[in-house]
Design goal:
Layout: H1 20-32, H2 38-48, H3 52-69
Length: 88
Amino acid sequence: MRSTLPARLASPRELPRIRCEQEKVLLDFFQRDKNPQFADINIVAAELGLHPYDVRIWFQNELAFWRMSEGLPANNRKVYDIPQPPSS
């Protein structure tokens, strides 16, 4: 069974400090797998010298931004859960 990370926009205070070269690796991994398993997060974190929690927060935030760019709700809500404006 595949575990999934929830998409979640993080506040600027919550975002981990990631160096440019680390972010390049994370973005490359994100392009291949937008929702990695926890084992993959642990491996990437170890390779980059980051804490797995920081990598998880980065992926959740990046996934939320990707969802918004696709016209979806940022925080894992289904499209039909979003209140629609009243029709005039």
